[in-house]
Write the structure tokens for this entry.
Amino acid sequence: MPTNKNAMTRYKIIDELLSNRHHNYSLDDITEEINKRMSDLYPNTNGVVRRTIEKDIYYLEYEGPFLVDIERYSVPSYNYEKRKTFMKKCLRYANPSFSIFKKEMTNDEETILREVLSLVGKFDGLPNFEALENLRIGLGAKDEEHQIISFSKNPLENSSLLGEIFTSISERQVIRLHYHTFLNPKDILETDVYPYLLKEYNSRWFLIAASADDKKILTFSLDRINSISPLPSHKYVGYKGNIQERFEDIIGVTYIEDSPIYKIIFWVSEKSKDYVCTKPLHESQRKVSEKCEITLRKSYPALQDGQFFIIECKYNYELIRELMSFGEHLLVIEPQEIKDIITTHINNMRDGYQVISSCDKNL
């Protein structure tokens, strides 16, 4: 066996890549992935060259104690930067379930996994994960007589879509989306994306992904995605940083790049203030300072009860909808831009009801 102190680490990474059926790895891909992971594990270690990986694979096939069966095959691939299609020579285990590091789970691991599956398997937002239920039963989990935890859901017509996208994200796999718009449901569009995150908001699921063409971050509602096609031969580009940070300054999922972060002060009536306290509109929500509250009470003498709050976030549709959802029990004090937008909506709504009322009189 090679004496290189990092050889076993490389074998473990190679083993993982060769058993992965969600990607088509070439020798260059394997070398690149090993260098990436090794640099994370051993920052002061020099990278390995392709020739070293070739020797590692040869050892696993012909010289070591494993004598693994590796198949070579070619698949079409695409380079988005060069806009060029090419044939990629790849490697993988002939047996997809084979691993040189396979081991049995301990009793503690089985217990933890069983409990997790009992919860996740009943999560209505993850439909068609039949394998979860089979594994849960196989581990000896018992069915509850009644449901203990319930989640709101908005059923998808394609109930397996959530699971398919979940797998693509976890496996860092490029996918081709086949989707439509609400205005033209019969016009099926296609785009290749790097999927990053599945996000639930207001009982709807959204995919946050980057366009493979220009890396622009896009948001797709799952109820407008007809299907996805995995592209295992295409190179995946991950998000630099934490994609969750993108949502820290917004309510919902709509991110407007050029919107500033507004400091929004609003009043909530006595009837609704406890609700807003226990269910904040945004994670930045807080009560205004005592000094600020005194000033506001003097400026708005009609608002002597209730509570003043402040949030800091970008403008988007969800922000306005959330602020308007309380009706007369929530009034925005500042900034003027947000007040003007809400006032426009209110005027339009009033005009609409006036039209309806005039029609009612003619009936």
